[in-house]
Amino acid sequence: MRGATVYAQGQPIDLAIAMQAAEWLTTLMSGAATPAEKTAWQAWRQAHPDHERAWKHIESVSGGLRELDAQASRKALLQGPSSRSISRRTSLQLLAWVSTIGITGWFGARSPYAPDFARAALADLSTSVGERRELTLPDGSHLHLNSGSAVNIRYTGTQRLLQLVQGEVFIATARETDRPYRPFLVETAHGHAQALGTRYSVRQAEGSTVVAVEEGAVRLLPRLGDDKLLVQAGQAASMTAQQVLPAHAVSPDIWAWRQGLLLADAMPLRDFLHELSRYRHGLLGCDDTVAHLRISGVFPLADLDAVLLSLPESLPVDVRLRTRYWVQVEARQQR
What we know:
Layout: E1 6-8, E2 11-13, H1 15-29, H2 35-47, H3 49-62, H4 70-78, H5 88-108, H6 116-121, E3 125-126, E4 133-136, E5 142-145, E6 150-155, E7 160-172, E8 184-188, E9 191-204, E10 209-222, E11 229-232, E12 235-239, E13 248-249, E14 261-268, H7 269-277, E15 283-286, E16 294-300, H8 304-309, H9 311-314, E17 317-323, E18 326-331
Parallel strand pairs: 7-8, 15-18
Antiparallel strand pairs: 1-2, 3-6, 4-5, 5-7, 6-7, 7-9, 8-9, 9-10, 10-11, 10-12, 12-13, 14-16, 17-18
């Protein structure tokens, strides 16, 4: 539902903000929210008028559901034809989603046009924030899911299709042995990436899909229009629903996440923190006064708190851990 209009208290609101409000609701509904999480929630509400408006809306439409016992919520969600096991947190997220969009929207969440939040909860494979996962697909292709990613596997007699619901994947395609030949495709909100004997990554962002090719080639086919582009090894290209932007050279550093690393080469601090936020729960940001500072190095994704606390050793900044889930990087204060 990219591009859809979402309303809170009768006024349009950004879908991402609505989903953040739903996430906060699930945290509070769990019954295990820490004082730090509650403080971060209040800070989020106060950070922008739209945050407060989104919260008031989700609070009103969810009503008494916020007071439900977590175990009862989980049991209610799991009743029905499906016996699929769902984690406690995912159950609460689904409950928040149902309470927010209603029964009609819940069934709509199963469609390819539903928001990522709902589709990810029902995806065939997924990873949580900070988690990475590797597995072999039915045809022998190798799939590596990055943090906060979700995919559906749709193999048929005519094609091998992965639907990337959110996040990023790296794929090493296997040689097709079935007849007739089945093309290997990754579908995103913006179009298709067709592999041609390939090792490559596909990352879905808010406004585009980025494909980076390590070996072989990938053909990009936007969802709308006739534009297309063949991306060769050592190149990357971005695709919107209407067009493919020109390919450009890419460094192998882009795949360092597969080894649990983030490689930065004179990366602006704002971009660096944005990348780290993909692997860490909570709010992670910086003041505009330091956003332009450049950082270089190799950073382990398994210990992001240590990475953050080390920033003052190489940059003129202070790191403020307002709560466990709210970190702000500021200009160093004169002492």
